């Protein structure tokens, strides 16, 4: 059985399920690389309107599979290659033009928490536990994962999460901004409901907004005006825009095609 399952659902919603329940869905080096490939493949797929990431067996993701570190992360060179694989998976999610949602239950720890904050939205069940235990393992959380965490929770909360390395219950994680929506049960059902609403809106508008917000939140460089102008022009010149204007005049709902 595949350790990453993919389900394409009506309306252009795709559900990606981490499927190692016996290991709380922790990720091997091969799976980090597979996630990056998978999310990159979604970017140019016009049938994909929204992507949900979740985990099997009532757990989201317990982070990296530390049991393989002695073979895949034993030298500085291997550690660098491993970090690159993690960054590539997170970047592929973060930079995906389509909106992304993490549906979280159980453990959301370490690299799993990194995956969650690389998504646009996080919906968690009340039993979810969040933690970044790097300070208990003697390692430094990656720059890109730290930046994503900072953008989501702010400086003081990011320090609290990284310095204390505590396990945070879902309610406290929500207070910090780590969780957008808290539900008693079935985060996946709530994620599907949100995904359906997002998928009905103009894909080019969402892609443009996400590109601009991504640049604004980066904080390390000047805005790339060429990229901004390109996403604005693509939307302005699209068939979706023309039909949406016509639908507005005729007081009916537009049907967007992403072109």
Provide an overview of this structure.
With 259 residues, this protein is α/β, with parallel strands linked by helices. It folds into 2 domains: 4-199, Alpha-Beta Complex (2-enoyl-CoA Hydratase, Chain A, domain 1); 203-249. The protein contains 12 helices and 9 strands. Strands 1-2-3-4-6-9 form a 6-stranded mixed sheet, sandwiched between helices. Strands 5-7-8 form a 3-stranded mixed sheet. α1 runs parallel beside α3, α3 (76-94) packs parallel to α4 (111-118) and α10 runs antiparallel to α11 (225-236). The longest helix has 19 residues, at 76-94. The mean pLDDT is 90.
Low confidence ranges: none
Number of strands: 9
| Oligomer description | single chain
Strand-pairing-aware structural class: alpha/beta
Order of helices and strands: EEHEHHEEHEEHHHEHEHHHH
Q: Helicity range of the residues?
A: 40-55%
> Biggest sheet: strands, sense, closure?
6 strands, mixed
Question: Do you know the CATH topology of the largest domain?
Answer: 2-enoyl-CoA Hydratase, Chain A, domain 1
Summary tags:
globular; 259 residues; alpha/beta; 2 domains; 2-enoyl-CoA Hydratase, Chain A, domain 1; 15% strand; 12 helices; 6-stranded mixed beta sheet; 9 strands
Short description:
By secondary structure, the protein is α/β, with parallel strands linked by helices. It has helices at 29-43, 69-72, 76-94, 111-118, 134-137, 143-153, 155-164, 170-176, 187-199, 203-218, 225-236, 239-249, and strands at residues 4-9, 13-18, 50-55, 100-104, 107-109, 121-125, 129-131, 168-169, 181-183. A hairpin with a 3-residue loop joins strand 1 (4-9) and strand 2 (13-18).
């Amino acid at each position: 059985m595949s350790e990453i399952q993919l389900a394409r659902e009506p309306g252009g919603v795709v559900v990606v399920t981490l499927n190692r329940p016996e290991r709380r869905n922790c990720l091997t080096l091969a799976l980090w690389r597979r996630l990056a490939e998978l999310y990159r493949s979604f970017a140019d797929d016009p049938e994909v309107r929204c992507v949900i990431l979740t985990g099997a067996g009532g757990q989201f993701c317990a982070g990296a599979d530390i049991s393989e570190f002695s073979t895949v992360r034993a030298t500085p060179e291997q550690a660098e290659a491993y970090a690159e694989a993690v960054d590539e998976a997170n970047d592929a999610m973060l930079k995906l033009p389509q909106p992304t949602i993490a549906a979280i239950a159980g453990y959301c720890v370490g690299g799993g928490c990194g995956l969650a904050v690389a998504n646009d939205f996080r919906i968690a069940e009340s039993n979810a536990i969040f933690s970044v235990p790097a300070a208990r393992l003697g390692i430094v959380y990656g720059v890109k994962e730290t930046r994503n965490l900072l953008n989501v929770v702010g400086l003081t909360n990011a320090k609290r999460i990284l310095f204390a390395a505590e396990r945070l219950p879902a309610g406290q994680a929500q207070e910090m901004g780590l969780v957008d929506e808290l539900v008693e049960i079935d985060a996946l059902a709530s994620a599907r409901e949100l995904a359906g609403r997002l998928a009905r809106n103009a894909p080019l508008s969402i892609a443009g907004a996400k590109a601009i917000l991504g640049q604004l939140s980066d904080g390390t460089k000047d805005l790339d005006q060429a990229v901004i102008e390109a996403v604005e022009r693509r939307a302005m010149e699209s068939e979706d825009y023309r039909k949406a204007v016509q639908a507005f005049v005729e007081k009916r709902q537009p049907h967007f095609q992403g072109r």
